[in-house]
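Per reviewer request, we include the raw input and output of the structure prediction for the construct analysed in the revised manuscript.
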Amino acid sequence: GACVLMMVFFFNDTATTGIYTLSLPDALPICIGKGTVYEYFKSKQELFLACFDAYMAQYCEALEAQSEPSGGAAFQIRNATSAAFDLADEMEELFPLTFEFWAASASLQIRDRVMDLFRKTYAQLREFFGDMIRRGIEHGEFDANIDVESVAAVLVGSLDGLFFQAWFDKNMNALRAGDAFVDVLLRGLERGA
């Protein structure tokens, strides 16, 4: 309905303009008035937070949907990281939103909410990869002495860092770097490595 339509337009305009310079009337389709926004959201910041939450949920859901559930844990991790790079390519034009979200965390009005959304997203991604590592341990594919939470955190942080580097440097091949990193990671996780 109107709420989703507002979020789509606001979301796309925020990615190119920035939250602090974007005016609501400019971001909305002609069929939705500024007053309609306030029927659903208390402020532009609330709309922004709803967009951020939807953006991150969309990414996490798409990553889970594109990850092949069959095969061993190493196959699943490799497939999931490859899917993460594919999704990053598909969502590249929205990547500036990430910087808007980080910048918004400086605002005292919404800092705690933005930080909670980041914490939730990173926790979800760590759990996603952590579950794969745990399955690998349970099936004897990975060493039983692995600190699952730490490895999952490093994997998520590495992917995040590669996405940022690739966005800043279009000549960098993040997929190749990611594949090389995952090769090393998986060799280190192997039982008896």
